[in-house]
Model the fold of this input.
Amino acid sequence: MSHTAHIRSHRKPRRSASKVAMRAGVAGGVLSTLAVAGASGSANAAEPVTQTLELPTLTADLATQVAQSADATQQAAANYALQAERDTAAAKAAKQAKADLADAKKKAEAKRKAAEEAARKKAAERASRSAERTTLSASAGTGTSVGTSTGSSTATGSAAAVISFVKAQIGKAYVSGATGPSAYDCSGLVQTAFRQVGISLPRVSQDQSTAGTQVSLSNLQPGDILYWGGAGSAYHVAVYVGDGMFVGAQNPSSGVVEKPLSYDPPSGAVRVL
Done:
């Protein structure tokens, strides 16, 4: 036996081919894993690029929303402006309506007062006429008759001309202040009638009731001027035409008419012819 038979060799043992192949496979697997990881890392690294490409789409949508919001704001502003105009117009209309109502009330009040005054005057005239009729009735009871003339009942000369004129005006209108030829008031008719024969009479009833000689109602002659009310304060006049009749411009509803003395007995008479 050799003296070196039990001495171990310091030389490393050779690796077997199978182990080498295994290790190579492991290495290959590791490299493959690294490659996959690298590829995955590369894929992950590419994701921000994909997000960056989507930004223009998001920006366009945002611009659309901003534009729509601006349109809505503008429309709302227009609506507010229109509502403000309507409110202003409504306020103006309400103010005008209030003013019109106040004016209408004022006019209605004025008309009411005028109607009351007219009614008061009319009542006073009726009361005056009633008093005059009472006086005339009392006179009749003492032997004085109204409407029976002891003088001539046939008009001649100027009286005939006056009577012819007033009878020709029968049917024409009564208009306060009118003196013909299409309309008259009571004193306008008398004044115009006597102007036909050259006699100038005062314009109003009060003055015409004192323009001549006072005569009794029982001694009337055609052409005498009849008056209602007091002498100097008469409110109505007419012309006596004979046979118990007179012609006068009575009122707006009757116009110029011929009536008997009993229709509305006069207060007195004057003679100018």
Observations:
- Confidence is low (pLDDT under 50) at residues 30-37, 39-46, 134-151.
